[in-house]
Structures are given as structure tokens and as C-alpha cells.
Amino acid sequence: MSRLTRSFGFAARSLRRQPARASVGILGIAAVGALLLDMLLLSRGLVVSFHDLLDSIGFDVRVVAGDLGPIGGPRLADASGIARELAALPEIAEAVPIRMAEGETPAPGGVGFSLMGIDVQARRPWTLVSGSDRLESPGRSVAPGGSAAVPSVLVNRRLATALRVSPGDQIRVRATCSAEQSAMPPVPFLVAGVADFPFDTESQLSAVALRAAVRSACGTGTDDTADMVLIASREGFGADSAVSAIRRRRPDLHPATNDEIVARMQQQGFSYFRQISTVLSTITMLFGFMLIAVLLTVSVNQRLAEIAALRALGFSQARIALDILSQSALLVGAGGILALPLGVALSVWLDAILKKMPGIPMTLHFFVFEPRALVWHAGLLAVTASLAAAYPMWLVTRLSIASTLRNEVVS
Fold first, then answer.
1. Are residues 120 and 45 part of one domain?
2. Can you give the pLDDT of all 411 residues of the chain as single tens digits?
3. What is the radius of gyration, based on Cα positions, of the chain?
4. What total number of domains does the chain contain?
5. Does a structural domain hold residue 263?
């Protein structure tokens, strides 16, 4: 039996002789470890979740007219021509222009919502819930016996509930494509289906129609502009190759991969959560260090006579110090294992609270599990256990055997 195994066995027996103190230590480390795990999940959770959200819709490159972010900058002129030109590149499988607008049903009881126009092709950046996601533009039949002049629209579940509509119903929509535009008369749309849109918030009302249908509803039928063009790179090339090809072909455009968008968001907005995570992780480790250090120090002070007797029987300083370190490792190890399910449950609760912040998509998460988080969690707890055992180990190595035993007999 190795020295390390004997030390762990001796440490385990010492802890069993003090069940109350050992339980307090394990439960305290479990609470500290759960908070530490959650802070590690928070440090990169929003970044990982946002990247997964971008990838989930099947497009890995965004093309805009100005370097001002994905949406909100100048619009792309001749969007259809740009999409055709980019789709012809061998590195690109699909190029889809989108245009953002606002929609509203007529008063009384009007309901406002976000309206997106998209030149949908093979990929669908939404999840169909009911009905059909086959979108038609004005002038084409959308249903057997339906009016050839009625375009179709997809609505999200909250908008379907607010308007009390289902697939096959008609709604009248007054669309606005720019702040300077005057209000247009409402036009009919046929609700083709109900879908979930990945970037919707908990309370957002959203709808999607073909870009031509949105332009027609806005009264800007000849306005071939778009807020961005979504690009799906061809298999075997990848997003970076697609971006390089776009820059060579159209240096006036500003393409960005999902990785670049996430990196920009991490620098501009997500760094706050990393900073918070670092500060709280440091505080959490400090509490864990103090808890274990105090428990071990009290335990050593109460066992000074026992330790002196063991030294007199031939136990070396290194062996006694290793026993103290083993006690710390057992306390932190048991508490760290218990911290994992506790931390996961706590992260689910905290995530639900943070997702109630305004403007947060429902599919976005603040706490995301990564294997690297477990590695960091174990490493930080190991460092905490080692540092917490340093002072009690120093006490036992400095212990005077003769004076300690004499004081014990006198007392």
C-alpha cells in the first residue's frame, strides 16, 4: 500500500471521527463549488449560445453595406443583383436577401409586429409549428380557390394568439418599410403557417413574408434594397473561403462570418459577463479557501496531542503534512462532486431569471455547459484545497513533540 493511499485512509478515519465538522465542510464546499461552476458557465455561456444561435439557421456569413453591425446600417442597393452575383461564386451555396419592416393590423384593436421580407430558397431560418412555410408573392395563388392577388405570411405563435388566427385565415396588414414613409392602406395576407423564429424574444410579435410581398405592402415595389444578405458557404469551402471570395468579387461589401460577429459582440457587449464571472469566481474561491483553512486549522489545534504522539511513534513530518493535505482533498473532492448537480440546478434557475431581460431571444442561454468548464472547476477546487491546507500543514511541521506532550499531561 502506497504512502498516498495510507494517508487518504488515515484522513478519512479522522474525518469520520468528526462527522459534524466534516459535514459542514462538505456542504460549504458544495455551495461554493456550485457557485464557482455557475460562474464558469456564465463566463462563456452567452458567447457559445449566441454562436450556436447564428449557426442554427443554416447561414454562416452575413453581408451588409456598412461596417456598423448586422442590422441597422445603410441598406444594400440592388439586393437581388448582389444575391445572384454572390450565389454564382463557387464558394457559396446560397445567398438570401432580407429586409426588415414594421407591420400593424388596422384599428380598432390594432396589433403592431416586426415584419421581415426574405427571398427564401432551400434553407428556412425558422421552425415550422403548423401549416405550411411555402411563401408566395402577390399575383400567385397561395391556396386552391384562393385569391391570386393575396400574398402569404408566416406568423409566430404569440402573433397568432394576439390576432386569433390560424393557417388559412386572412389578415390585413399596414406595412411600413422606413421611418420617412407615410402610412399605406392595409393589404390582405393569407396566413400560410405558424413558426418559431430563432431571434424572437419572449414577448416579440413577428411575421415573415417574401421580400416582394413586403415591398408591395409598403408601396415600394421598385425598391430592391435589403438590410443584409445571408450567405451559406458551400460544403468543402467554409465561411472563411466564402468571405474571401466576396471581398475579391465585391470589395464594396462588408461580409462577416459567424465567428467574426461573435468576436465583435464579445468585445462590445459580452465582456461584461466575463468580468462579472471573474470577480465572482475569485470571491467564491476566497470563501472556499477560508472555510477549509478554518476547519483544518481548528481540527489540527484540537488534535495537537494526537499528532505529537504520532510523531513520537515514528510518523515523519512529511507523513503528517500529507495527512492534512489528504483531509483537505477529501473535503473539497466530496463537496466538489456534490456541487455539480447543485450547480446545474442553480444555473437553470438563474438562466430563467436572466432571460427575462428585455431584448434577449428565447433560444439564447446565459449558462452553457462545456467540458472545459469541468476541467477549470476541478483545477480551481484543487488549487483551493492545496492553499487551504498550507497553514495547517505548516503548523504540524513546526510542532514541538516534547513540549506538546508535556502540556497535554499537565493540562
1. no
2. 466 676 667 667 777 777 777 788 888 888 888 988 998 888 888 888 888 888 888 899 999 987 655 455 688 888 999 999 999 999 999 999 999 989 899 877 789 999 999 998 888 889 999 999 888 876 654 444 444 468 999 999 999 999 999 999 999 998 888 766 666 788 899 999 999 998 888 889 999 999 989 888 887 767 788 899 999 999 989 999 999 999 999 999 999 999 888 888 777 666 677 787 788 888 888 888 888 888 778 777 766 676 777 667 767 777 777 777 887 888 888 888 999 999 999 999 999 888 888 778 888 888 888 888 889 999 988 888 888 888 887 877 776 666 666 665 555
3. 32
4. 2
5. no
Q: Domain limits at 322? A: 3-54+270-410
Domain boundary among 252, 286, 318: 252
**224-233 residue pLDDT tens:** 888 999 999 9
35-71 burial code (b ≥16 CB/10 A, e <16): bbbbbbbbbbbbbbbbbbbbeebebbbbbbbeeebbe
Residue 60 lies in a domain: no
Q: What is the pTM of this model?
A: 0.75
Please report whether residue 373 resides in a domain. yes
